[in-house]
Amino acid sequence: MTETKRILYLEDDPLDFELVQAALGAAGAKYALTRVETQEEFLAAIRAGGWQVICSDHTLHGFNGDWALSQARAHRPEVPFIFISGRMGEETAIDSLKRGATDYVLKHALVRLVPAVERALREAAERAELRRAEDALKASAALYRLLMDSSPDVVLLLDREERCRYLNSPTAQLLQRKAEDLLGRRQTELFPSEVAQRHSQAIQEVFRTGQPSQSEELIGLPHGRMWADTRLLPVRNAQSEVIQVVAILRDITERKRAEEDRQHWDARLQQLQKLESLGAMAGGVAHDFNNILTSILGYTDLLADEVPAGSAGHDYLRQLTAGARRAAELTMQLLAYSGRGRFVIRSLNLSQLVREMSHLLDISGGRRNLLKYRLLEKLPVIEGDANQMRQAILNLVTNAAEAVGDRDGQVTISTGLQECDQASLAGTYLQDNLSPGTHVFLEVEDTGSGMTAETLAHAFEPFFTTKSTGRGLGLAAVLGIVRGLGGGIKAASEPARGSRFRLLFPVARTFPPPAVAAARQAAEQWRGGGTALLVETEAASRKTARGLLEELGFDVLAVSSGFEATEVFRARAAEIRLLVLSAALSRLDLEHLFLEVSQVRNPPRVIVAAPEAEFDSMKRLHQPRVAGFVHKPFEAAELREVLREAHESLASTVPIPPAS
Length: 660
Hints:
Layout: E1 5-10, H1 14-26, E2 31-36, H2 39-48, E3 53-56, H3 65-75, E4 81-85, H4 90-98, E5 103-106, H5 113-150, E6 154-158, E7 164-167, H6 169-175, H7 179-182, H8 193-209, E8 213-221, E9 224-236, E10 242-251, H9 253-304, H10 312-337, E11 346-348, H11 350-356, H12 358-365, E12 371-374, E13 382-384, H13 386-404, E14 411-420, H14 422-425, E15 437-446, H15 453-458, H16 474-484, E16 488-494, E17 498-506, E18 531-535, H17 539-551, E19 555-559, H18 562-572, E20 576-582, H19 587-598, E21 605-609, H20 615-619, E22 628-630, H21 636-648
Parallel strand pairs: 1-2, 1-3, 3-4, 4-5, 12-14, 18-19, 18-20, 20-21, 21-22
Antiparallel strand pairs: 6-7, 6-10, 8-9, 9-10, 11-13, 14-15, 15-17, 16-17
Helix pairs in contact: 2-3, 9-10, 9-17, 10-16, 12-13, 13-16, 18-19
């Protein structure tokens, strides 16, 4: 059904209105013609709206059609306007068309009215459709720009000459220039030459092949460097020809940093797992060695009293004892690497410690004037073990002196303070031990042969050495000692430029009281008395310890398990004055035994005989407090001194030292 078109007609002559109405009706078209006569009526009608065509006579009483045209264009510019006049010259008609009229029809040629109206309606519909398309295009363009400007990615549209024809806001922000200054410029003017040349090759390849490309690249920018995921996409015309290329650069710097961090932590985890497994192995080997050496040293002590002094046999025993002691030193280095060495924690001033051992260090250096000292006065103290720290320093200096060799060179030992943040601690061995803050450092630097990065990565592994005569335990022991004392190590080296090892330790917040005092000179003739209960799981060590205790005057009850010890103690508690036990006993056996001991009014003194590696299990036990420690492998003099101190101590008990 055809829609009725509403036409507003400004006409002051009723007869002319009827003629126009008749002309429209004769054409069979459905038009609804509404007449107004005055300016007020015309204005009210066009303001109300709803008209498809506006018509007007040109000559009216008191005004003319030009006024009506101006009002119609002002209020309804989208509605066609047609003059219907009886006396309108050609010049006037052309002038009206220029001012916005759609057409004009003379009253004596009303046969043209319907075609003029229909043409006007068609053109109006076309203009409306065009406006809708333009509005949609503008909306689409605005949405596109909004999306592009909201994207964090850099987006450029480049022609064959690589000139920028479009860019979004992030592009201008990234390049720190105004968008209008970038339009029309070649991409070689926007990016550093090396990056632009790489882009140019890739862009021309897209134009040539029509295939998109993707790459990850490091781009230098005014504000720094950025990792970018760069994608180049072809833009084609209707003939599928590549006419432009869209370049999209996505900032992946954080992703790259996260990947690097993950790789770093994966490598650290693998290194820690490797060190942990090697440490467990080293601790296990040291434990077995200690049991063997305990028997060797114990029996040599017992034989020494039987063999005449000055005889060949006595000399053999002396050499056997010296060899066993050297083997014991080796086990101590293995324990140090595993982080389970013998630690007696006290306040240490590293500058003072280095001064005290400077003579020994100078001898270890092998040449005069090789060592140089830069020691900070009034250095804050750390919490550490003096003997273990001396061993670490000696190992570092020995390695440094060997790296210098016979060449002219220098080994510098320095102490001082370093403020460490998270960034400066990155790459530190044992980094998890350290927190940001003030740290005391001890550094050994040499000008020797140095190491490659690959060699340095293995430097702290046990048994790794670049020297034909080395055991590969020097730096491994240093790592274990520093691990046990809660510190970290920063290492750097370059071939032919030397090496630098810096040990970092937290500043002590408190000054703990000294641990058990160093053994005083033992009374050579001290002897004990009474019954001693010896609990040792390893047969050879049990036999050796029994002989040493009997030599010192004790009646010994020797058993091999915690269960046996509990039964014997329960039966003979009143006469047992000394309990010597191995920390290798199971936790359950120890707890049962200690429960029995705690129920006695005058409990015996307890001596722990074990490698330091087994003290962790002891420290977690609630009962009893321990009177002393003797470390495997031990000799008669050491056992005698520990027992004497335990016997003569007024306090009679000493807390188990905290595990390192």
